[in-house]
Design a protein that fits this description.
5-stranded mixed beta sheet; about 35% helix; alpha/beta
Length: about 600
């Protein structure tokens, strides 16, 4: 038996992944255990869990693979500082303590933290992303495209995969980066870099792309093949700790929005503009990759691959017949890719392949908890509950959703990647017009403009959305079908007033541009979640429900029953379903010494 451990850490979204004879046995982000969102520290907890899940110890690991090459990354940081001297030296000096303490000593840290004496390998950052995209995909051969902020030097790369081989053909180098360009606008619009990009994407449909021409004229020299150069006079990330500078602000005539302040129409228009430019770049690159590789299938990874609006356009308008996106496209997925790269390319093992399904196992790769564990926990909390049989549970919960209740849904193994896919989800009735605002403000404690995603039964997806293929990982945005659209009011409403319009038969998951970030579910991937939605379909004729992540603003996805119970009790969810057990909020005693959790999360 061969055991390979992949690790990513020390930037953001630390994670580990364990391969057992080439199969993905376990994968999880460190944040899920520490409860520190985007935790970048050494993933000790996730490694320990992976080993425990497989029933092995560290001495059973044949090889540990780190997801990037720190010395090359350090070389880039040093060269960048020198090229911007003297202004770049202050940023370099501030970065040095972490490099001298951790990042230059990865082998020593691994040996010390894990008491490990075996082989340690290093993969390239973009190699890890590419491997995470191609090897689990259902394609025997394919083109791959990686777009992110920056790895060692690379910011974008593409190439081909065939069998167990993977070759990067071309790449774009720092500082010219689509990911960093998008992050600059994330910062400018008042959101946090490396975590608020999805907020920028959600904000974009409220505005008009009035500044797209200005961005293309002043900030970026975009070529027909999708390659580009940024005019670094307008950006701060090369020589300061800020993403933008005064020249950048002067172009738009606005200072960066301060976090938590009012979002004005100008920032909505700026969000719409950079989203439009990003989609154009993604489409141009994909057309070029298709021309060069002549492949019919495409695999996507890197942080930009989480831009599901751009992904949706690639699927609908791009030249590829089939597209597969790695659900853990960011740095967490690098742990998976590094392990797969070692198994296939370093050790030369024959590729495992299923052309019917990918090998990602619905990305349900994290911790799961038995009913006995859940029941013992509930008893220890003196929490009243009702135990339901396997057949009764989906039918009863579907009835609660139909009546307008919001349900915390905790089942099976935790999702790997940023999306809740029906294992750690908060669910509700997508037909309820008030549900979006209620769930945002009273349960998620987040901005009211943020859209929710629908989960739809796989066989019914094309009846409700302009999508004729599966989207199991919630990484494709598609328009709502015209026959499902309802217009109550007019689209003359500005900004967040657009939220007041009932747009479709499923208004709670229909964004203001009549689109939705679709997740399809099949019974093979997630039987209980499928059965729940199918029961709701039988009752209502609607095969669509709301699915949002089981957490609140500022916290990672819940991992344990303890996490789920605390989140349930400190929000206005109506019911909690964990395993076979149903909890009614009205029957629970308030938590002792509770605080104003809504205010706490607003400050995070």
């Amino acid at each position: 038996m061969s055991n390979i451990l992949g690790i990513s850490c020390f930037y953001h979204d630390s994670a580990s992944c364990l391969l057992v004879d080439g199969n993905i046995a376990a994968a999880v982000q460190e944040e899920r255990f520490t409860r520190k969102k985007h935790d970048f520290r050494f993933p000790r907890n996730s490694i320990n869990w992976c080993l425990k899940e497989a029933g092995i110890g560290i001495k059973d690991i044949d090889c540990i693979v780190f997801y990037e090459k720190p010395l090359i990354k350090f070389e880039r940081i040093l060269e960048t500082a020198l090229s911007y001297a003297p202004t770049g030296l202050s940023q370099f000096i501030q970065a040095m303590p972490l490099w001298l303490k951790q990042k230059l000593w990865i082998p020593e840290i691994i040996k010390k933290e894990l008491d490990y004496e075996g082989q340690i390998l290093f993969a390239g950052h973009h190699e890890s992303h590419a491997a995470s995209a191609f090897y689990p995909s259902p394609f025997k051969e394919a083109a791959f495209l990686t777009l992110d902020g920056v790895g060692e030097w690379e910011t974008a790369s593409f190439g081909t995969g065939c069998g167990n081989n993977l070759d990067i053909l071309y790449y774009l180098k720092f500082p010219h980066s689509l990911g960093l360009l998008y992050s600059a606008f994330t910062y400018y619009c008042g959101f946090k870099v490396n975590s608020g990009e999805y907020k920028l994407m959600g904000l974009a449909p409220y505005g008009e792309p009035k500044y797209a021409g200005l961005i293309l004229d002043k900030l970026i020299d975009l070529k027909e093949d999708g390659s580009f150069k940024l005019d670094m006079r307008y950006f701060g990330y090369g020589n300061t700790l800020r993403m933008t500078n005064k020249r950048f602000h002067g172009i738009f005539g606005l200072e960066p929005r301060k976090p938590e302040t009012k979002i004005t129409a100008e920032y909505m228009d700026i969000a719409a503009s950079i989203q439009k430019v990003t989609e154009e770049i993604m489409l141009r690159v994909c057309r070029h990759v298709h021309r060069v590789t002549k492949k019919d299938s495409l695999c996507l990874a890197g942080g930009v691959a989480l831009n599901c609006v751009g992904n949706g356009r690639i699927v609908r308008e791009g030249p590829f017949k089939r597209v597969w996106v790695q659900p853990a496209s960011g740095d967490a997925g690098g742990a998976l890719g590094a392990a797969l790269l070692a198994w296939y390319k370093y050790y030369g093992n024959k590729r495992m392949l299923s052309e019917e399904n990918d090998l990602q196992k619905a990305s349900l790769l994290g911790p799961g908890y038995a009913d006995d564990y859940i029941e013992n926990f509930l008893k220890s909390e003196n929490a009243p509950y009702k135990k339901l049989s396997g057949e009764t549970l989906p039918r009863e919960v579907a009835g609660l959703i139909e009546k307008g209740n919001v349900i915390g849904w905790f089942q099976g193994r935790l999702e790997f990647g940023p999306r809740a896919l029906g294992s750690r989800s908060i669910i509700g009735d997508a037909r309820n017009q008030d549900m979006q605002t209620r769930m945002n403000l009273k349960i998620k404690f987040r901005e009211s403009f943020r859209p929710f995603a629908p989960t739809v039964l796989r066989e019914h997806v094309s009846e409700w959305f302009d999508l004729d293929k599966e989207s199991p990982y919630m990484l494709l945005v598609a328009p709502v079908n015209k026959d499902k659209i309802i217009k109550h009011g007019t689209d003359k409403n500005d900004g967040f007033e657009k939220l007041k319009i009932k747009r479709s038969e499923v208004p709670a998951v229909t964004h203001v541009d009549y689109s939705a970030r679709v997740q399809t579910v099949s019974r093979e991937d997630n039987p209980l979640y499928y059965d729940l939605i199918n029961e709701f379909y039988k009752k209502t004729g609607c095969p669509v429900i709301i699915n949002t992540s089981f957490n609140v603003r500022g916290e990672p996805l819940v991992c344990t029953p303890e996490d789920a119970f605390k989140c349930f009790m400190r929000t206005e969810m109506d019911y909690l379903v964990m395993g076979q057990f149903l909890l009614d909020k009205k029957e629970q005693k308030p938590l002792d010494k509770d605080i104003d959790w809504q205010r706490k999360w607003e400050l995070d």
